[in-house]
């Protein structure tokens, strides 16, 4: 995890209530400014999903990042 998070980073903390739903094993950061597309053939499995409140936060940060 970077020492300094920027506006487009979203920290997914293992201490939060819905962390188990994410499928992550440790606290992680979504670095939204580093989005990329990946061919489906490269995806081995699904980890989990983000709780609705985090998805809303992702949407807000992406809108801000892309000035939408």
Your description of this structure?
It comes from marine sediment metagenome. This is Type II toxin-antitoxin system PemK/MazF family toxin. InterPro entries: Plasmid_toxin/cell-grow_inhib (IPR011067). The protein is 26% helix and 12% strand. With 68 residues, the protein is α+β, with helices and mostly antiparallel strands. The radius of gyration is 13 Å and the shape is globular. Strands 1-2 form a two-stranded antiparallel ribbon. The mean pLDDT is 92. The protein has one domain (9-37, 46-65). The chain has helices at 19-22, 52-65, and strands at residues 9-12, 28-31. The chain has two helices and two strands.
Question: What are the SSEs and their pairings?
Answer:
Blueprint: E1 9-12, H1 19-22, E2 28-31, H2 52-65
Antiparallel strand pairs: 1-2
Organism: marine sediment metagenome
Protein name: Type II toxin-antitoxin system PemK/MazF family toxin
InterPro entries: Plasmid_toxin/cell-grow_inhib
Give the termini distance in whole angstroms.
27 Å
Derived structural class: alpha+beta
How would you characterize the largest beta sheet? Answer: 2 strands, antiparallel
Mean pLDDT over all positions: 92
Q: Indicate the percent of residues in helices.
A: 25-40%
H/E element string? EHEH
Total strand segments: 2
> What is the beta-strand fraction?
5-15%
Shape: globular
How many DSSP H or I helices? 2
Spatial order of strands in the largest sheet: 1-2
The total number of structural domains is 1
What does the radius of gyration come to?
Answer: 13 Å
Poorly predicted sequence stretches spanning 5 or more consecutive residues: none
């Amino acid at each position: 995890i970077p020492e300094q998070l920027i506006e487009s980073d979203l920290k997914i903390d293992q201490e939060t209530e819905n962390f188990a739903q994410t499928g992550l094993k440790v606290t992680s950061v979504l670095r939204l400014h580093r989005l990329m597309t990946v061919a489906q053939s490269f995806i081995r499995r699904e980890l989990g999903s983000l709780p609705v409140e985090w998805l809303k936060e992702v949407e807000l940060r992406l809108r801000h990042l892309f000035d939408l």
